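The protein record now logged underneath.
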Amino acid sequence: MYIKNPMEIENKSMDVIDEVMGDTNFSEEEMIIAKRMIHTTGDFEYRKIIEFKNNFIQIAKEEIEKGTTIYTDTRMGFMGINKPALERANCELACYIDDERVFQMAKELETTRSACAIDIAVEEGIDAFVIGNAPTALFRILEHVKAGRLDPKFIIGVPVGFIGAAESKEYLREFDIPSITTVGYKGGSNVAASIVNALLYMVAGR
C-alpha cells in the first residue's frame, strides 16, 4: 500500500522536512519558502544556502497582490508555476526564450537567447524576474540595472550550473534589490517555480 492523496503526500513530506530543519534563522514566511524549495528538490542542503535580501518576501507579495507580470527565463519554470493560483492573484507570466525575435538577436549579437530574452522583457516594461536556469539572463538584468534602464521590483535569482551560476548570484547580492538567491551552483527552474508558488499561495491560497 502507498499514499495516493496528493495533499496527504505533501503534508507528510512537509512533516519530514520540519524534523530536519532544526535551528535556523528563517522567519516564518522565509521558512515556508525554504521548505517548498527543499520539498521540490529533496535536498536538505538548501536550508544552508538560501539568502533573502531587502525585504524580498514582503515586496514580492505586494507586487503579486497588485497583479503584476512575472518574467521567467525557461518554459520549464513557466510550466512549473501554479496557474490557478496565478489566476487568483491576477498575475501573468511572460517567457520569451522561444520568441523569434530572440533567435534573431542572439545570432546577430553572438550571445545567448537567455540574455536577449531579457532585453525584450525590459522593452516590454517587465520588472519582476524569475531566473532559474541561465546565469547570462541574470547578468543581463543587472547590466540593465547598472545602465539605469531597469529598476526591478524583485528578482528570484537561482540559476543552476558550474559556469557563471554562483558568480551571477553573488553579483545580484551586491545590489539593493529585493531578491532571493542560493549560494553556490545549486538552483534550477524547478526551484525558481517553487519560490513563485510559495509566494502565490501566501497571497492567493491553494
About this structure: The longest helix spans residues 6-21. The chain has a mean pLDDT of 95. The chain is about 55% helix and 10% strand. Strands lie at 50-53, 69-72, 92-94, 128-131, 154-157, 179-182.
